[in-house]
UniProtKB/TrEMBL annotation:
Record's keyword annotation contains Signal: yes
Signal peptide location: 1-21
Keywords noted in UniProt: Signal
Keyword Signal belongs to the record: yes
Name of protein: LVIVD repeat-containing protein
Origin: domain of life: Bacteria
C-alpha cells in the first residue's frame, strides 16, 4: 500500500513517537509535565484534525517510552502471523472517495445481511449475505471524522467530532472557534440499505466523538448518548468544564424529528483531575449500553463509570473507578452477557503510539477486567495481547465485542497494528488468549497509522474494519465458539449490547 509521505500525519506521528522514545517526556512518577515543544502547534492541529485521540500523543501524562528501541520483533512488514483456528476469508479494500490519504476506516455496525462501515469521509454499505464474498453496494460521501456509526431498524446514526462549515454532507472543515461551525450527529434512513437517505442533523456540545443507542422500553424512541470531550475556552460550542453527555431523542418512525433533549451531568465534582499517569476527565470517550439490564458503562478519559439507564433520558452514575497507575485514557467498555462484568480499555497514547512491547509492559495500554458486585465495579485483572510489536506499529487496546458463547465470557478485539485477538475472561482474574491474527508493520522505517480499528463478531464470523485495508472477514474454527455460530442477530452495534438470551 502507499505510505504517507513526509509532512503528513505519518511524519507527525513518527516525530512525536521518536521524541517520546528518546526521553523528551518525563519518566513515570517524576511529577513533571511534558516539556514544551514536544509537538508543534501545527502538529497538534494536524493530529486533532485526524480524529480519535491521536493528538493525545502530545499531551497525555505517563507516555515515557525511553529504551523502546531495544527489542526484537518477529514479523517483517506485511508478513502474517495467525493461530491455526483463525483465518482470513475476505478483504475488500477502501476505494473511490475513501482511498485517499486521511480517509481512514473506522467503526462497524450490522443489520440483516448488511455491514455498515464508518470512514472519516462518510460510510460504506456492504452486502455480507455471503461473508466470504462481501459486496460493496453503496458509498456515502459525508465528511466529518470520525463518523462513528450505528444502526437501529431503518435508522443509521453518525457521529461528527470535527468542526464543519455546515451540518449537511456537503461541508468543509472549519475552525471550532467560529460560532457558525457545526459538530454533532447525523441521522439517515436505511430502509433501502443500498440507497441511504439523509434525514436530520443535531448539534451537540463539543460534537460527538462516539455515540450509543438506547431504545426506549415502549419501542417508539431511540435515545442517542453522544460522548465528547476536551473543551476549550476559544470554542464557543465546547466550553469547560464539559462534565456531561448529550442525549438526543430520535422517534423511530420519524428520524427527521430527532432533537436534543438533555445534557445530564455525570461528574458534578469535575471527575478525575488527572495526574502523573491518568488523564483529567472532561467528558466521555465512549459509552456501552446494555438496555436489557438497564445498565451502561462509560469510559471517560480519567474515569470508568457504571450507570443506571432505566430512565433512558436521564442516565445516572451509580459507581465510579479510577486507575492512577496503569490506565492513561479510559477508552471503551464491554459487558459480559450476564451483566456481571465490564471490560474497560486503556488507549494509552491515543491510538497513535507503539505500546505493545516489553518496555510499556502488560498492564498499560491494556484491558482492565472488573466484576460488578452489588452494583459496584471491582477490579480483577489486566489483559493485553501478548505479541511484541515494532516501533513503527501503533498498537493499543481498541474496539471489540463479546462472542455469544453461552456460559463463557469470550471477546474478540482490535489492537490497531497489533491485529485481532480473541480471548477468554470467564475467570476474571486469569484471562487467556485463544486466537489471533497479526501482520507485520505497514512500514519498517516510519510510523504509518494503520491496523484494525474494530473487530466484531456477527452471525458466525469476525469482521474487522482496517484503517487502511478496508473490510476484512475472518472465520474462527474452534469448538470453544461453536455454539456462538448458532446465535443469529437481526442487527448489532457493539456499543448497544444485546442479550443472547433474547
Amino acid at each position: 500500500m502507499k505510505l504517507l509521505p513526509a509532512g503528513t500525519l505519518a511524519a507527525t506521528l513518527a516525530g512525536a513517537v521518536g521524541a517520546l522514545a528518546f526521553g523528551s517526556v518525563p519518566a513515570l512518577g517524576s511529577g513533571e509535565d511534558p516539556k514544551p515543544g514536544q509537538c508543534t502547534a501545527a502538529e497538534v492541529a494536524e493530529l486533532r484534525a485526524a480524529g480519535d485521540n491521536f493528538a493525545d500523543v502530545c499531551f497525555l501524562p505517563g507516555q515515557e517510552l525511553a529504551g523502546i528501541e531495544g527489542f526484537d520483533v518477529a514479523l517483517d512488514p506485511g508478513q502474517v502471523d495467525r493461530s491455526n483456528n483463525l483465518r482470513l476469508v475476505a478483504n475488500l479494500p477502501l476505494t473511490g472517495a475513501f482511498k485517499g490519504e486521511g480517509a481512514y476506516g473506522t467503526d462497524l455496525a450490522f443489520k440483516g445481511d448488511y455491514a455498515f462501515a464508518g470512514n472519516y469521509e462518510g460510510f460504506t454499505v456492504y452486502n455480507i449475505e455471503k461473508p466470504w464474498k462481501p459486496k460493496r453496494v453503496a458509498q456515502v460521501v459525508c465528511p466529518g471524522s470520525q463518523n462513528d456509526i450505528s444502526v437501529y431498524r431503518d435508522l443509521l446514526v453518525l457521529s461528527v467530532d470535527s468542526s464543519r462549515s455546515n451540518p449537511t454532507c456537503r461541508n468543509e472543515s472549519q475552525s471550532a472557534s467560529e460560532k457558525s461551525s457545526w459538530e454533532g450527529i447525523r441521522v439517515f434512513d436505511i430502509s433501502k440499505p443500498w440507497q441511504p437517505r439523509f434525514l436530520r442533523s443535531v448539534e451537540t456540545a463539543c460534537g460527538s466523538h462516539t455515540h450509543t443507542l438506547a431504545p426506549s422500553k415502549n419501542g417508539r424512541d431511540l435515545f442517542v448518548y453522544a460522548s465528547s470531550y476536551s473543551p476549550s475556552e476559544d470554542q464557543p460550542d465546547c466550553q469547560p468544564p464539559h462534565d456531561f453527555i448529550s442525549v438526543v431523542r430520535v422517534p423511530i418512525a420519524h428520524g427527521e424529528r430527532a432533537k436534543l433533549v438533555g445534557e445530564p451531568v455525570l461528574f458534578p465534582d469535575g471527575g478525575n483531575p488527572g495526574g502523573v499517569y491518568s488523564s483529567d476527565t472532561s467528558g466521555c470517550h465512549d459509552i456501552t449500553a446494555y438496555p436489557a439490564k438497564d445498565l451502561a458503562a462509560g469510559a471517560c478519559m480519567g474515569d470508568g463509570i457504571l450507570m443506571d439507564i432505566s430512565d433512558r433520558a436521564h442516565p445516572r452514575v451509580i459507581h465510579r473507578v479510577t486507575d492512577e497507575v496503569n490506565f492513561s485514557f479510559w477508552h471503551s467498555a464491554t459487558f459480559n452477557n450476564a451483566g456481571t462484568k465490564v471490560v474497560f480499555t486503556d488507549e494509552l497514547g491515543g491510538g497513535a503510539m507503539p505500546t505493545c512491547n516489553p518496555v510499556v509492559g502488560a498492564a498499560r495500554g491494556a484491558d482492565g477486567i472488573y466484576d460488578i458486585v452489588d452494583r459496584q465495579l471491582v477490579f480483577r485483572s489486566y489483559y493485553k495481547m501478548p505479541r511484541t510489536q515494532s516501533l513503527t506499529e501503533n498498537c493499543v487496546a481498541h474496539n471489540g465485542s463479546l462472542i455469544p458463547v453461552q456460559g463463557k465470557d469470550i471477546m474478540v478485539q482490535a489492537w490497531y497494528q497489533g491485529g485481532t485477538s480473541v480471548w477468554d475472561f470467564t475467570d476474571s482474574a486469569n484471562p487467556v488468549e485463544i486466537a489471533h491474527f497479526d501482520r507485520g508493520a505497514v512500514s519498517d522505517t516510519e510510523l504509518v497509522l494503520g491496523g484494525s480499528w474494530s473487530s466484531y463478531w456477527y452471525n458466525g464470523y469476525i469482521y474487522s474494519s482496517d484503517i487502511t485495508r478496508g473490510l476484512e472477514v475472518f472465520a474462527m474454527d474452534d469448538k470453544r465458539v461453536a455454539s456462538a455460530k448458532k446465535v443469529r442477530m437481526s442487527r448489532f452495534n457493539a456499543q448497544s449490547q444485546p442479550s443472547y438470551n433474547g
